[in-house]
Amino acid sequence: MTGADSLVVASWALMATGLLTFAILWWVSAPYGRFMRDGWGPTLPSRRAWMLMESPSAIGFLAIYVLGRNRLEMVPLVFLAVWQSHYLHRAFVFPIRMKERGKRMPWVIAGMGFFFNCVNAYLNARWISDAGRYDTSWLSDPRFVAGVALFAAGYAINQHADAVLLALRPTDSAVYRIPFGGLYRWVSCPNYLGEILEWGGWALATWSWPGLAFAVFTFANLAPRALSTHRWYRETFPDYPPERKALIPFVL
Ligand code: NDP
Question: What residues are in contact with ligand 1 under a 6 Å CB criterion?
Protein backbone atom coordinates (compact mmCIF):
# COMPACT_ATOMS: atom_id res chain seq x y z
CA MET A 1 0.00 0.00 0.00
CA THR A 2 1.40 3.45 -0.90
CA GLY A 3 1.43 6.40 1.50
CA ALA A 4 -1.50 7.92 -0.40
CA ASP A 5 -3.47 4.65 -0.14
CA SER A 6 -3.06 4.52 3.62
CA LEU A 7 -4.29 8.12 3.90
CA VAL A 8 -7.38 7.18 1.90
CA VAL A 9 -8.07 4.16 4.13
CA ALA A 10 -7.59 6.26 7.26
CA SER A 11 -9.94 8.92 5.82
CA TRP A 12 -12.65 6.30 5.30
CA ALA A 13 -12.13 5.16 8.90
CA LEU A 14 -12.55 8.78 10.03
CA MET A 15 -15.78 9.08 8.04
CA ALA A 16 -17.09 5.88 9.62
CA THR A 17 -16.23 7.32 13.04
CA GLY A 18 -18.11 10.46 12.01
CA LEU A 19 -21.25 8.43 11.32
CA LEU A 20 -20.95 6.75 14.72
CA THR A 21 -20.41 10.17 16.33
CA PHE A 22 -23.54 11.48 14.61
CA ALA A 23 -25.61 8.59 15.96
CA ILE A 24 -24.28 9.07 19.52
CA LEU A 25 -24.67 12.86 19.50
CA TRP A 26 -28.21 12.50 18.22
CA TRP A 27 -29.09 11.03 21.65
CA VAL A 28 -26.43 12.48 23.97
CA SER A 29 -25.27 16.11 23.89
CA ALA A 30 -21.51 16.39 24.42
CA PRO A 31 -21.10 17.67 28.02
CA TYR A 32 -19.42 21.04 27.58
CA GLY A 33 -20.64 24.65 27.43
CA ARG A 34 -24.40 24.92 28.03
CA PHE A 35 -24.67 21.11 28.17
CA MET A 36 -21.97 20.63 30.83
CA ARG A 37 -23.18 18.29 33.60
CA ASP A 38 -21.88 16.01 36.33
CA GLY A 39 -21.02 12.36 35.81
CA TRP A 40 -18.31 12.68 33.15
CA GLY A 41 -15.29 12.33 35.43
CA PRO A 42 -12.53 14.85 36.19
CA THR A 43 -12.68 18.26 34.54
CA LEU A 44 -10.34 21.11 33.57
CA PRO A 45 -11.00 24.84 32.96
CA SER A 46 -12.73 25.43 29.61
CA ARG A 47 -10.17 27.89 28.28
CA ARG A 48 -7.31 25.47 28.87
CA ALA A 49 -9.37 22.61 27.41
CA TRP A 50 -9.96 24.51 24.15
CA MET A 51 -6.26 25.34 23.79
CA LEU A 52 -5.30 21.75 24.50
CA MET A 53 -7.84 20.30 22.06
CA GLU A 54 -7.21 22.66 19.18
CA SER A 55 -3.45 23.21 19.32
CA PRO A 56 -2.62 19.96 17.42
CA SER A 57 -4.59 21.38 14.50
CA ALA A 58 -2.29 24.39 14.35
CA ILE A 59 1.08 23.10 15.63
CA GLY A 60 0.73 19.44 14.60
CA PHE A 61 -0.44 20.38 11.11
CA LEU A 62 2.57 22.66 10.63
CA ALA A 63 4.99 20.04 11.98
CA ILE A 64 3.72 17.39 9.53
CA TYR A 65 3.46 19.89 6.69
CA VAL A 66 7.14 20.91 6.86
CA LEU A 67 8.20 17.27 6.53
CA GLY A 68 6.39 16.90 3.18
CA ARG A 69 8.18 16.79 -0.17
CA ASN A 70 5.94 19.49 -1.64
CA ARG A 71 6.17 21.91 1.26
CA LEU A 72 7.69 24.75 -0.79
CA GLU A 73 5.29 24.50 -3.71
CA MET A 74 2.76 27.23 -4.35
CA VAL A 75 -0.56 25.38 -3.98
CA PRO A 76 0.38 23.53 -0.76
CA LEU A 77 1.55 26.86 0.70
CA VAL A 78 -1.82 28.42 -0.16
CA PHE A 79 -3.56 25.50 1.59
CA LEU A 80 -1.28 25.94 4.60
CA ALA A 81 -2.32 29.60 4.82
CA VAL A 82 -6.02 28.75 4.47
CA TRP A 83 -5.84 26.09 7.20
CA GLN A 84 -3.86 28.25 9.60
CA SER A 85 -6.14 31.25 9.07
CA HIS A 86 -8.75 29.18 10.87
CA TYR A 87 -6.70 27.21 13.37
CA LEU A 88 -4.34 29.88 14.71
CA HIS A 89 -7.50 31.74 15.66
CA ARG A 90 -9.39 28.71 17.01
CA ALA A 91 -6.48 27.39 19.10
CA PHE A 92 -5.02 30.59 20.50
CA VAL A 93 -7.35 33.59 20.00
CA PHE A 94 -10.85 32.16 20.52
CA PRO A 95 -10.02 30.56 23.92
CA ILE A 96 -8.49 33.81 25.18
CA ARG A 97 -11.58 35.77 24.12
CA MET A 98 -14.02 33.32 25.77
CA LYS A 99 -15.84 34.59 28.84
CA GLU A 100 -15.91 31.36 30.75
CA ARG A 101 -16.05 32.28 34.41
CA GLY A 102 -15.78 29.02 36.34
CA LYS A 103 -16.71 26.94 33.27
CA ARG A 104 -15.09 23.52 33.02
CA MET A 105 -14.94 20.66 30.54
CA PRO A 106 -14.55 16.93 31.25
CA TRP A 107 -11.07 15.59 30.48
CA VAL A 108 -12.69 12.85 28.44
CA ILE A 109 -14.16 15.42 26.01
CA ALA A 110 -10.93 17.42 25.81
CA GLY A 111 -9.03 14.15 25.28
CA MET A 112 -11.30 12.99 22.46
CA GLY A 113 -11.06 16.43 20.82
CA PHE A 114 -7.26 16.32 21.14
CA PHE A 115 -7.08 12.84 19.63
CA PHE A 116 -9.41 13.69 16.74
CA ASN A 117 -7.46 16.86 15.95
CA CYS A 118 -4.13 14.97 15.97
CA VAL A 119 -5.44 12.41 13.46
CA ASN A 120 -7.23 14.98 11.33
CA ALA A 121 -4.27 17.37 11.22
CA TYR A 122 -1.94 14.50 10.31
CA LEU A 123 -4.13 13.24 7.45
CA ASN A 124 -4.76 16.67 5.94
CA ALA A 125 -1.18 17.94 6.33
CA ARG A 126 0.30 14.74 4.86
CA TRP A 127 -2.05 14.97 1.91
CA ILE A 128 -1.42 18.63 1.23
CA SER A 129 2.35 18.62 1.49
CA ASP A 130 3.20 15.10 0.37
CA ALA A 131 0.65 12.66 -1.05
CA GLY A 132 -1.50 15.10 -3.05
CA ARG A 133 -0.37 16.36 -6.45
CA TYR A 134 -1.17 20.02 -7.11
CA ASP A 135 0.57 22.06 -9.79
CA THR A 136 -0.03 25.78 -10.15
CA SER A 137 -2.82 25.24 -12.72
CA TRP A 138 -4.92 24.00 -9.76
CA LEU A 139 -5.22 27.66 -8.66
CA SER A 140 -7.57 28.35 -11.57
CA ASP A 141 -9.48 25.05 -11.37
CA PRO A 142 -13.19 25.68 -10.66
CA ARG A 143 -13.08 23.24 -7.70
CA PHE A 144 -10.28 25.24 -6.09
CA VAL A 145 -11.90 28.61 -6.79
CA ALA A 146 -15.37 27.55 -5.58
CA GLY A 147 -13.91 25.71 -2.57
CA VAL A 148 -11.85 28.69 -1.41
CA ALA A 149 -14.85 31.00 -1.92
CA LEU A 150 -17.00 28.64 0.19
CA PHE A 151 -14.31 28.47 2.86
CA ALA A 152 -14.08 32.29 2.94
CA ALA A 153 -17.86 32.68 3.24
CA GLY A 154 -17.97 30.07 6.02
CA TYR A 155 -15.05 31.73 7.78
CA ALA A 156 -16.78 35.12 7.75
CA ILE A 157 -20.06 33.60 9.03
CA ASN A 158 -18.31 31.62 11.76
CA GLN A 159 -16.19 34.53 12.95
CA HIS A 160 -19.11 36.94 13.04
CA ALA A 161 -21.39 34.47 14.82
CA ASP A 162 -18.78 33.63 17.48
CA ALA A 163 -18.06 37.35 17.98
CA VAL A 164 -21.78 38.03 18.58
CA LEU A 165 -21.88 35.30 21.24
CA LEU A 166 -18.71 36.45 22.95
CA ALA A 167 -20.04 40.04 23.07
CA LEU A 168 -23.32 38.94 24.70
CA ARG A 169 -21.76 38.37 28.09
CA PRO A 170 -20.52 40.97 30.53
CA THR A 171 -16.88 40.36 31.45
CA ASP A 172 -16.44 37.76 34.15
CA SER A 173 -19.83 36.16 33.68
CA ALA A 174 -21.30 32.97 32.29
CA VAL A 175 -24.91 34.09 31.63
CA TYR A 176 -26.73 33.17 28.42
CA ARG A 177 -28.77 35.63 26.34
CA ILE A 178 -30.58 35.50 23.00
CA PRO A 179 -28.19 36.43 20.18
CA PHE A 180 -29.32 38.78 17.40
CA GLY A 181 -27.72 40.11 14.21
CA GLY A 182 -26.30 38.61 11.02
CA LEU A 183 -27.47 35.05 10.38
CA TYR A 184 -28.95 34.81 13.88
CA ARG A 185 -31.98 36.31 12.22
CA TRP A 186 -32.59 32.94 10.57
CA VAL A 187 -30.74 30.29 12.59
CA SER A 188 -29.74 29.55 16.17
CA CYS A 189 -26.23 28.31 15.31
CA PRO A 190 -24.66 30.29 12.46
CA ASN A 191 -21.25 29.58 13.99
CA TYR A 192 -21.78 25.86 13.30
CA LEU A 193 -23.20 26.60 9.85
CA GLY A 194 -20.09 28.67 9.04
CA GLU A 195 -17.79 25.92 10.31
CA ILE A 196 -19.56 23.31 8.16
CA LEU A 197 -19.27 25.56 5.08
CA GLU A 198 -15.59 26.17 5.78
CA TRP A 199 -14.65 22.51 5.81
CA GLY A 200 -16.98 21.71 2.94
CA GLY A 201 -15.06 24.38 1.01
CA TRP A 202 -11.77 22.86 2.14
CA ALA A 203 -12.87 19.43 0.88
CA LEU A 204 -13.80 20.92 -2.49
CA ALA A 205 -10.66 23.04 -2.84
CA THR A 206 -8.29 20.21 -1.89
CA TRP A 207 -10.38 17.57 -3.72
CA SER A 208 -9.01 15.06 -1.22
CA TRP A 209 -10.22 12.13 0.93
CA PRO A 210 -8.84 13.66 4.15
CA GLY A 211 -10.63 16.92 3.29
CA LEU A 212 -13.89 15.06 2.66
CA ALA A 213 -13.49 13.07 5.88
CA PHE A 214 -13.03 16.29 7.88
CA ALA A 215 -16.10 17.88 6.25
CA VAL A 216 -18.23 14.80 7.00
CA PHE A 217 -16.99 14.65 10.58
CA THR A 218 -17.65 18.36 11.14
CA PHE A 219 -21.25 17.96 9.95
CA ALA A 220 -21.70 14.81 12.05
CA ASN A 221 -20.40 16.63 15.12
CA LEU A 222 -22.15 19.96 14.73
CA ALA A 223 -25.55 19.23 13.17
CA PRO A 224 -26.87 17.28 16.21
CA ARG A 225 -25.44 19.93 18.53
CA ALA A 226 -27.18 22.67 16.55
CA LEU A 227 -30.51 20.84 17.01
CA SER A 228 -29.91 20.42 20.77
CA THR A 229 -28.86 24.06 21.11
CA HIS A 230 -31.94 25.22 19.21
CA ARG A 231 -34.17 23.14 21.49
CA TRP A 232 -32.38 24.54 24.53
CA TYR A 233 -32.95 28.16 23.38
CA ARG A 234 -36.64 27.48 22.84
CA GLU A 235 -37.04 25.86 26.25
CA THR A 236 -34.97 28.50 28.06
CA PHE A 237 -36.35 31.72 26.53
CA PRO A 238 -40.17 31.96 26.16
CA ASP A 239 -39.69 34.99 23.85
CA TYR A 240 -37.25 33.15 21.54
CA PRO A 241 -37.91 34.20 17.90
CA PRO A 242 -40.29 31.49 16.58
CA GLU A 243 -39.23 31.81 12.94
CA ARG A 244 -35.60 30.89 13.67
CA LYS A 245 -34.40 27.47 12.48
CA ALA A 246 -31.52 25.49 14.04
CA LEU A 247 -28.83 25.36 11.36
CA ILE A 248 -30.01 25.95 7.79
CA PRO A 249 -32.14 29.05 7.07
CA PHE A 250 -35.80 28.14 6.28
CA VAL A 251 -34.99 24.41 6.21
CA LEU A 252 -33.64 22.81 9.41
P1 NDP B 1 -21.13 27.66 21.37
O2 NDP B 1 -21.98 28.44 20.46
O3 NDP B 1 -21.77 26.69 22.28
O4 NDP B 1 -20.28 28.67 22.32
C5 NDP B 1 -19.34 29.59 21.83
C6 NDP B 1 -18.97 30.56 22.95
O7 NDP B 1 -20.05 31.48 23.19
C8 NDP B 1 -18.75 29.89 24.31
O9 NDP B 1 -17.82 30.66 25.03
C10 NDP B 1 -20.13 29.94 24.96
O11 NDP B 1 -20.08 29.89 26.36
C12 NDP B 1 -20.62 31.30 24.48
N13 NDP B 1 -22.08 31.34 24.28
C14 NDP B 1 -22.80 30.45 23.51
N15 NDP B 1 -24.10 30.81 23.50
C16 NDP B 1 -24.20 31.92 24.26
C17 NDP B 1 -25.31 32.76 24.62
N18 NDP B 1 -26.53 32.50 24.17
N19 NDP B 1 -25.08 33.82 25.45
C20 NDP B 1 -23.82 34.06 25.88
N21 NDP B 1 -22.73 33.33 25.57
C22 NDP B 1 -22.91 32.26 24.75
O23 NDP B 1 -20.02 26.97 20.47
P24 NDP B 1 -18.99 25.79 20.83
O25 NDP B 1 -18.36 26.11 22.14
O26 NDP B 1 -19.64 24.47 20.63
O27 NDP B 1 -17.94 25.96 19.64
C28 NDP B 1 -17.09 27.07 19.57
C29 NDP B 1 -16.50 27.18 18.17
O30 NDP B 1 -15.78 26.00 17.85
C31 NDP B 1 -17.59 27.34 17.08
O32 NDP B 1 -17.14 28.29 16.15
C33 NDP B 1 -17.69 25.97 16.46
O34 NDP B 1 -18.06 26.06 15.11
C35 NDP B 1 -16.26 25.42 16.64
N36 NDP B 1 -16.30 23.96 16.76
C37 NDP B 1 -15.92 23.19 15.68
C38 NDP B 1 -16.02 21.81 15.72
C39 NDP B 1 -15.70 20.95 14.52
O40 NDP B 1 -16.07 19.76 14.51
N41 NDP B 1 -15.01 21.46 13.49
C42 NDP B 1 -16.47 21.12 16.96
C43 NDP B 1 -16.88 22.02 18.02
C44 NDP B 1 -16.79 23.38 17.90
P45 NDP B 1 -20.20 28.49 27.16
O46 NDP B 1 -19.00 27.68 26.76
O47 NDP B 1 -20.19 28.92 28.59
O48 NDP B 1 -21.50 27.83 26.75
Answer: 33-34, 46, 98, 100, 103, 158, 162, 165-166, 168-169, 174, 176-177, 179, 191-192, 195, 218, 221-222
| d(C-alpha 211, C-alpha 15), whole Å | 11
Residue with CA at minimum distance from ligand 1 atom 39:
218
130-155 pLDDT, tens digit each: 999 999 999 999 999 999 999 999 99
Nearest CA to ligand 1 atom 13: 165
- Distance separating alpha carbons of residues 212 and 10, to the nearest angstrom: 12
Query: How many Å separate Cα 27 from the centre of its chain?
Result: 20
143/204 Cα distance (integer angstroms):
6
pTM to 2 decimal places: 0.97
Q: What is the distance between the alpha carbons of residues 211 and 209, in angstroms, rounded to a whole number?
A: 5
CA gap 160, 192 in Å, rounded: 11
H or E element in which residue 161 lies: helix 142-168
